[in-house]
């Protein structure tokens, strides 16, 4: 697993977090998690992260705010991390708003786990 890619899952629902984690671990990804927006930046700065699955509705700082913060990060490697937004209310946001925030792609809830794996592989390999 030394060469496995690391995915940060920013999700406050432990049910969704645990399901997503299990699915991605079966694909040989290393998973770290953040329960709120305050933890996201700490996680990203403390270890190499290859992709972020960002729930838009997380406490402390929402996913859009976290995404903007990552995109403004002085470390170019961090600022370029693919960010896949996950939201149950995508209708509240336009693709334009996602792009403006710096979201790479997005997946609607309830999560389609085949689509999840496909999208993660698209950006992480």
TrEMBL record:
Domain of life (superkingdom): Bacteria
Keywords assigned: Phosphoprotein, Two-component regulatory system
Keyword Phosphoprotein: yes
Location of the Response regulatory domain: 6-124
Stated name of the protein: Response regulatory domain-containing protein
Residues with the 4-aspartylphosphate modification: 55
InterPro entries: CheY-like_superfamily, Sig_transdc_resp-reg_receiver
Signal peptide interval: none
Gene3D superfamilies: 3.40.50.2300
Cross-referenced Pfam families: Response_reg
């Amino acid at each position: 697993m030394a060469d496995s890619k690391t995915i940060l899952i920013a999700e406050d629902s432990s049910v969704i977090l645990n399901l997503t984690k299990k699915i991605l671990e079966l694909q040989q990804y290393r998973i770290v998690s953040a329960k709120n927006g305050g933890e996201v930046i700490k996680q990203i700065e403390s270890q190499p992260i290859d992709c972020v699955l960002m729930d838009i509705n997380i406490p402390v700082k929402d996913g859009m705010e976290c995404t903007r913060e990552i995109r403004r990060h002085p470390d170019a490697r961090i600022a370029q991390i693919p960010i896949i937004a996950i939201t149950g209310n995508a209708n509240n946001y336009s693709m334009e708003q996602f792009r403006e925030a710096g979201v790479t792609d997005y997946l609607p809830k309830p999560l389609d786990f085949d689509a999840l794996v496909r999208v993660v592989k698209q950006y992480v390999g």
